[in-house]
Amino acid sequence: MNLSNGKTEIVRRHNKVVYQDGNRLVKVYNDQKPGSDVFNEALNNARVIEAGGRVPRVLEVSQVKDGEWEGSWAIAFGYIPSRNLEQIVDEDEAHIGKYFEQFVRLQLDIQAADAPLLNRQKDKLRRMINKVKLIDPSVRYDLQMRLDGLKGGGKVCHGDFVPSNVLIPNDGSDPYVCDWAHVTAGIPEVDAAQTYLLFKVEHPDSAERYLDVYSKMADMPKQIIMNWVPVVAAAELARGRKQREQFLLNQVEAVFDYH
Ligand SMILES: Nc1ncnc2c1ncn2[C@@H]1O[C@H](COP(=O)(O)OP(=O)(O)O)[C@@H](O)[C@H]1O
Ligand SMILES: [Mg+2]
Question: Which of 33, 64, 176, 208 could share a disulfide with 69, CB 3.0–4.6 Å?
């Protein structure tokens, strides 16, 4: 694809830059990112749309033709004129309770859908945990045994459900959810543990509040969600983000004390 000179940068991460380019939202990945991951994100998007999700549409997956990003894999979505829920909450903290309910309602609606063709949550977590040699093998074994005990699990689990991935359209229509790179077919409480962990990393004050609201709205005991926190924390370590390493290890070892 071509990127125009009029593009504006929305966010820059360690492995990609996200631009608005006219009526497209383009995610451009650096050369560390395998093409298969980019196609997987696009395929996930299509599967979630087929499962009834309100999701930005993929327009194109291809390598950038020229300029600074020549040769990089990129994925273009339809641009939704909107602000994300994180930006909205930052500017309107007084109504944070209302936004939390809206956020959890959206997560529960997504988790109500079945999408058995998505990658399986259990397999993805097991594979990621296996890579993390930083964790004692006995602890890894224990975490994987927990996953082996998982029954069922064909529900749509976003895998990165955080306020910055919820788009509130400017025209007042219903929210969209973006960023489906990590979606799996799985168990909702594991997905809730993932969201709880991500709050703990980025907005620690909001983590307990989220847990409280999710637990009540889903009628799900907090203990069941918390049981999965060491598992999702161990898997998160596979992403190799150094600045999160000690925090995540603490989340794993808060439960396992073999030393
Ligand atoms: N289709 C879209 N339309 C408008 N804004 C979007 C769209 N997709 C993403 N965004 C905005 O871009 C930000 C980054 O995109 P996202 O897909 O979440 O990338 P990342 O994987 O880096 O988190 C989002 O937080 C959101 O604010
Ligand atoms: Mg995102």
Answer: 64
Provide the terminal-to-terminal Cα distance of the chain, rounded to the nearest Å: 53
Q: What is the CATH number of domain 82-253?
A: 3.90.1200.10
Q: What is the tens place of the pLDDT at every residue in 60-100?
A: 999 999 888 999 999 999 999 999 999 999 999 999 999 99
Q: Which ligand is nearest to the CA of 42?
A: 1
pTM of this structure: 0.95
Q: 8-78 has which fold?
A: Phosphorylase Kinase; domain 1 (3.30.200)
Pocket of ligand 1 (CB under 6 A): 10-11, 13, 16, 18, 25, 27, 56, 77, 79-80, 82, 84, 164-165, 167, 178-179
